[in-house]
């Protein structure tokens, strides 16, 4: 018989379960995920277009247009879009950036801070965004966990592949913070790595435009959008989908990438359902 550990809330938990809920205030935490105002999908019992997805969100998406910090309207939009995607039955993992909190690369480039230290600062910024997204999802009734590549046990679980897979199998949204936990790697590379580790069917790259274009559509009115590309074409044409390391990793492991406009209502759910949205980048 496993020993019980009693919390101040009056609930007794067997030790493994207690550890899972540790640091969350178990009674309050459980109450917050029992109801939802996200409309359930009529097809929630059907197999989605993609069984398991990894969503990459930039830090800028949390801050609103050109802003630093976390914008409440932007956070609400992200939370509802992720919740809607999870409602159709897909297993969802989210990698978050931290550019809205601090731009470590810019500080390092200006010579203020050594790059490794600046990168660690950026990782801590992603933890802030991950916690904000978790809290928003909980208010929507969506069970979620933050797993961090840096140890910050008071607010997040450490990233362990088996633990992340278990959370996903239980239907929880897994929010991945702190990149890969090492400097000199982008969160795009983290997204590609985690997509492979968590056996995801597709990597969803959320951007401010509705796909990959021949040129910057904000600067070139003649730019046209690609419906479909191969990784080789993207590398050859130097299209800025994600950094080259991430792109090469996706190509090597044959992980398709869908680039889409996350601000378009229902876009994430449409992608999960298998609809043709944005630009699909596939193996050669």
Please explain how this structure is put together.
There is one protein chain. α8 (187-197) runs parallel beside α10. Residues 1-31 and 38-48 have low confidence and may be disordered. With 284 residues, this protein is an alpha/beta fold. The strands form two sheets. The protein has a nine-stranded mixed beta sheet, sandwiched between helices. The radius of gyration is 19 Å and the shape is globular. The N and C termini lie far apart (55 Å). The relative contact order is 0.14. The protein folds into two domains: 1-32, no CATH class; 37-282, Acetylglutamate kinase-like (Carbamate kinase, 3-Layer(aba) Sandwich), CATH 3.40.1160. The protein contains eleven helices and eleven strands. A hairpin with a 5-residue loop joins β1 and β2 (12-14).
Tags for this model:
284 residues; alpha/beta; Carbamate kinase; 2 domains; 9-stranded mixed beta sheet; two-stranded antiparallel ribbon; 37% helix; globular; disordered N terminus
The biggest beta sheet, please? 9 strands, mixed
Low-confidence stretches: 1-31, 38-48
Seen as an oligomer or otherwise, the chain set is: single chain
What fold name stands as the CATH topology of the largest domain?
Answer: Carbamate kinase
So what's the CATH class of the largest domain? Alpha Beta
**CATH fourth-tier homologous superfamily of the largest domain:** Acetylglutamate kinase-like
> How would you write the strand order of the largest sheet?
6-5-7-4-3-8-10-11-9
Summarize the amount of helix as a percent range. 25-40%
Kindly estimate the percentage of residues that lie in beta strands according to DSSP. 15-25%
Q: What's the total helix number?
A: 11
Structural class designation: alpha/beta
The shape is globular
Rg from alpha-carbon coordinates: 19 Å
Q: What is the N-to-C order of secondary-structure elements (H for helix, E for strand)?
A: EEHHEHHEHHEEHEHEEHHEHE
- Please tell me the CATH architecture of the largest domain by its name: 3-Layer(aba) Sandwich
Gap from first CA to last CA? 55 Å
Number of domains: 2
């Amino acid at each position: 018989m496993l020993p019980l550990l009693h919390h101040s809330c009056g609930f007794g938990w067997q030790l493994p379960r207690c550890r899972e809920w540790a640091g969350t205030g178990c009674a309050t935490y459980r109450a917050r995920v029992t109801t939802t105002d996200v409309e359930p999908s009529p097809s929630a019992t059907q197999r989605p277009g993609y069984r398991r997805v990894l969503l990459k969100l930039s830090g800028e998406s949390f801050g609103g247009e050109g802003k630093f910090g976390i914008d409440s309207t932007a956070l609400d939009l992200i939370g509802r879009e992720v919740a809607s995607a999870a409602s159709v039955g897909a297993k969802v993992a989210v990698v978050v950036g931290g550019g809205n909190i601090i731009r470590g690369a810019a500080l390092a480039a200006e010579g203020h801070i050594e790059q490794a230290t600046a990168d660690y600062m950026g990782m801590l910024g992603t933890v802030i965004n991950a916690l904000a997204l978790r809290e928003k999802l909980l208010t929507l009734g969506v069970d979620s966990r933050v797993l961090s590549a840096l140890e910050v046990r008071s607010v997040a679980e450490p990233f362990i592949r088996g633990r992340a897979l278990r959370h996903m199998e239980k239907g929880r949204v897994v929010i991945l913070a702190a990149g890969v936990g090492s400097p000199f790697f982008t969160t795009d590379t983290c997204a590609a790595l985690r997509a492979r580790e968590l056996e995801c069917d597709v990597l969803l790259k959320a951007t401010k435009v509705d796909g990959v274009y021949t040129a910057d559509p904000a600067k070139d009115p003649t730019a046209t959008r690609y419906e479909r590309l191969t990784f080789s074409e993207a590398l050859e044409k130097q299209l800025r989908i994600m950094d080259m390391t991430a792109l090469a990793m996706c190509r090597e492991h044959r992980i398709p990438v869908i680039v889409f406009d996350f601000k378009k209502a229902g876009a994430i759910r449409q992608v999960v359902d298998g609809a043709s949205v944005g630009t699909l980048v596939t193996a050669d």
